[in-house]
Amino acid sequence: MLALLLVAAVPTLAQGDLSGELEIFSWWAGDEGPALEALIAKYNELYPNVEVINATVTGGSGVNARAVLKTRMLGGDPPDSFQVHAGQELIGTWVVANAMEDLTFLFEEEGWMDVFPEGLIELLSTEEGIWSVPVNIHRSNVLWYVPANLEEWGVEVPADWDAFLEMCPTLEEQGVIPLVVGENWTVVHLWENVALAELGPEGYRQLWAGEKAWTDEDVVAVWDKFSQILDCTNIDVDAASLPWQQATDKVVNGEGAFNVMGDWAAGYMVTTLGLTPGEGFGWAPSPGTEGVFNMLSDSFGLPVGAPHRDNAIAWLRLLGSKEGQDIFNPLKGSIAARIDSDLSLYNEYLQSAAEDWQTNEIVGSLAHGAVAPETFSSEFPTVMEQFLASRNAQAASAAAQALAEQAGIAG
Q1: Which of 49, 65, 93, 131 could bridge across to 19 with cysteines, CB 3.0–4.6 Å?
Q2: Which residues on neighbouring strands pair with residue 298, listed in sequence order?
Q3: Same domain, yes or no, for 308 and 401?
Q4: 351, 348, 9, 357: which is closest to 147 by C-alpha?
Q5: Are 272 and 403 members of one domain?
Q6: 134 & 152 share domain
Q7: Domain enclosing residue 300, as ranges
Q8: Which three-class secondary structure state does DSSP give residue 294?
């Protein structure tokens, strides 16, 4: 009876009605694979006559996958459904190119207007439609650490970046990297949370709304503060070669004290490393961002011309269902995009994130596609590389302003 109830929780076509293939394109490989594989297993259970092709392209935050996807979409060879960060990463690239189907019908049929937060639906939408199905909510602004290590080193979790800078010498004297960073996108990830702390949520939003110039004094000051923070990292040692997992490993094994990373790091530490939240690792809002939730959402859309459209729609129904989200997110290290998820299935960290999602002020991530069009976000790493080479705050601000003007989001 329980099995029947679980299957009934996911609206489906009859199992025999679907056959053929379903190609799912994503960057969830390796340590992020188990959550996707659990969803695929459920889809296989529901639609046993469909062969699921799990087309993953490795690379943190989808940096490599987006390049492959672009080639396929422009070449008239779209996958049946693909992973994309909710917001401008999809809308500013493929929706404006009329390459995606409007999914409003699916939201109405499944009752999703009532179970996804209004602000999230707005992020997924334009005046012409709703363009993807969110499977999760991740938080960008998380500071990770090991509680026992901080106690041994005689430091506490810093409330703001000034407090962090004050403790850097104490950690460095003990041979500890104060803050671990990795490859370029993780440095951009860190930058957005320094900017959020220094500008505040309203100033941060103004950058993306075209209401604040990158050359404003307070934005230039963000780059200066960021440079000071980088002096307390491994940026000039091995950062460029470190995937985010290896950066996390440095914190877990005691080489580093802190790491600012999204909460997929929690999924990695729990699912892959077998650590217990609150014991094996601790967390706090990134310095200076208490009470603010810097969000991103992984979602899937339906390309125009999807070879197996009915199979893809069935996949999207599963992704948006309560059961599908509660299968996926406890393994992924994220919380459900739905407001009715079963929190008893989630660990201590994820329960705390779910509470913050309901109570904190919400802003969107730059590094993960929520707030800026791809014409900006795909080129911002080049601005970052130039800054890392020069540490010139004025030049970085000017370059970012020029990029914002080209992307149509300049203040």
Answers
A1: 49
A2: 85
A3: no
A4: 348
A5: yes
A6: no
A7: 2-138+296-358
A8: strand
